[in-house]
Design goal:
The chain is an all-beta fold. The chain folds into 2 domains: 22-40 and 57-152, Immunoglobulin-like; 164-330. The protein has helices at residues 180-183, 296-299; strands spanning 22-24, 66-70, 75-78, 84-88, 97-103, 106-107, 110-115, 120-125, 134-141, 144-152, 164-168, 173-176, 191-200, 205-215, 219-221, 228-229, 233-234, 240-252, 255-268, 274-285, 290-291, 294-295, 308-309, 316-330.
Length: 344
């Protein structure tokens, strides 16, 4: 069997290893502070006559630059529970970086922490942001300062029951694995379909069913794979949501390929005609594949990927996959049968 474009989807990278040198951007009176620079462990020497070492860290110039800020400048339909993250080109001291968030009512209070051993900042608002509102992020590190703006999600949505949305795997951005662009070509079921079964506005729940899809010749649910049975998910951030994990099957080069812990998140557009900011995550099981005589997990290392333990049995042989898409569109006339029993 030859190793083909096996691509699927996996969780967005979380920034971990949070440095505990953190500060809340709220003063003792409960009023948001205008100074949101992160405080470090200040064990400073107050003696102005103390010797200074020209080679000490204190004498080194701060030369880090801002690499990215999330949400992106101009982002739309950002969740009201969003966390703001800024990443730097080099590690910095807490006093050399700051981040603040301003909304319709002024400076937003919350918790600001340094992450990844000084390589970034993360700001978590103390309360959900307002819907359909514009926010401004001001980030500074060393001599670099940038301002970015985003708009939060609008009003809740409730009239998309029965709508099916099409995620074409050929059109997504593959964040991982790096070998995904080489793998996608041999996936016969190159679509993922997601149908809204119900929305419970009273209990803030959404129920979706997924399926592998193909277009042979028209787009439809693939009849030889079981539906993807997601559990009802919290929908308190309506119109933003996330479902999963659930297990799924893709067909690659005529063979069934398991995708463990499949998850999907997105935000309904105001008219229900699309899902915005789609992310699909999962663990692609490649243990049955070889590249010539080379095991798939050995072959993908040349492309910078690494197999990890599969969640179903703990044995190494899965690729962590993460794909994103600006918009997945409503597919009129396409539905997913949640009771389908494959007969082929």
């Amino acid at each position: 069997m030859s190793f083909r474009p096996l691509s699927f989807t996996l969780a967005l990278f979380a920034l971990a290893a949070c440095n505990k040198d953190s500060v809340s951007v709220e003063d003792d009176s409960g009023t948001p502070s205008t100074d949101s620079a992160v405080e470090g462990d200040a064990d400073a020497d107050s003696d102005s006559d103390s010797d200074t070492d020209s080679d000490s860290d204190a004498d080194l110039p701060c030369e880090a630059e801002l690499i990215s800020v999330t949400p992106d400048d101009g982002a739309q339909a950002v969740g009201v529970d969003a966390t703001i993250v800024a990443l730097f080109s080099a590690a910095v001291a807490p006093e050399d970086a700051s981040l603040s968030l301003t909304g319709p009512d002024g400076l937003v209070s919350g918790e600001l922490v340094m992450i990844s051993d000084g390589l970034g900042l993360s700001f978590t608002p103390g309360a959900p942001l307002e819907r359909d509102a514009e926010y401004t992020i001001t980030t500074a590190v060393c001599e670099d300062e940038e301002i970015a703006a985003f708009t939060t999600i609008g009003d809740p949505i409730s009239d998309v029951t029965g709508y099916t949305y099409d995620v074409n795997l050929a059109d997504v951005t593959w964040n991982s694995p790096k070998s995904a662009s080489l793998l996608i070509g041999s996936i016969e079921t190159s679509h993922l379909l997601f149908m809204v079964e119900s929305i419970d506005t009273e209990n803030d729940l959404i129920d979706l069913v997924g399926a592998a899809g193909w277009d042979d010749p028209k787009l439809e649910q693939y009849p030889c794979a079981s539906p993807i049975d997601f559990e009802p998910a919290e929908f308190s951030t309506n119109p933003a949501f996330g479902v999963g994990p659930a297990n799924a099957t893709l067909v690659v080069s005529g063979y069934d390929v398991n995708v463990w812990d499949l998850g999907m998140s997105g935000t309904f557009a105001w008219d229900g005609e699309s899902l915005l900011n789609v992310q699909i995550t999962g663990m692609l099981d490649v243990r049955e594949f070889t590249v010539g005589s080379v095991e798939a997990c050995d072959a993908v290392t040349f492309l910078g990927d690494k197999c990890v333990a599969c969640p179903n049995d703990g044995v190494e042989g899965c690729l962590e996959v993460d794909a994103t898409m600006d918009a997945a569109y409503y597919a009129p006339g396409v539905s997913v049968d949640p009771t389908l029993v494959p007969e082929c």
